[in-house]
Amino acid sequence: MAQTSSLISGVAKRYASSLHELAQESRSVPAVEKDLDAIENMIDGSADLQRLVRSPVFSAEDQLRAISAIADKAGLKGLVGNFLRVVARNRRLFALAGIIRAFRIIAAEARGEIAAEVTAAHDLTAAQQKELAATLKQVAGKDVAIKLTVDPSILGGLVVKIGSRQIDTSLKTKLNSMKLALKEVG
To answer: Which of 88, 87, 82, 99 is nearest to 17 (CA)?
Structure first.
């Protein structure tokens, strides 16, 4: 399992690095980040699209046709549209989530930032995100680019991932810890 994870990570890093180089050359890194966010949101919101991306059952041609149609329908032309087609043609759609994550990290590092994935129980206001970024900057020692995900199942608090570090202050985790402690006592 770890070997598969490192394979995906290696593939994702190579593709993300290539995409970042092309985006820098064309001075379109922010636009590419925006388009990748859109793709990620589409995948997260569609079980059919998740199946297309992850399933080895679909042929490269089927994946290419489908991803081309999706890119065209979403208005993803140019660099990101072509990139998605290359990824599909090379049968690497299974690594797309990792590629997007790796691209964010590479782009943040290029700007002198560090990328943080934050999961919250509800959407954070701009002021809350700004305060969180300032707090994380003190911890990390660099500016922080936040990728916010909303997951109501954590009930409250935050889960913050910066690199290999994870800070979990979610209510769900605290309740589970209390539940385990009560089982040991009783």
So the answer is: 99
* Residue appearing with tokens 């989530």: 97
Strand order in the sheet with 113-120: 143-150, 113-120, 158-162, 165-168
Sign of the alpha-carbon torsion through 131, 142, 15, 27: positive
**What's the CATH fold of domain 2-106?**
Peroxidase; domain 1 (1.10.520)
Q: pLDDT tens digit string along 164-186? A: 889 999 999 999 999 998 888 76
Cβ atoms < 10 Å from Cβ of 158: 17
Indicate the domain borders of the chain. Answer: 2-106, 113-185
The two structure tokens encoding residue 8 = 């995906």
Distance between CA atoms of residues 31 and 45, nearest Å: 21
Give the residue from 112, 104, 182, 109 showing the smallest Cα distance to 149.
104
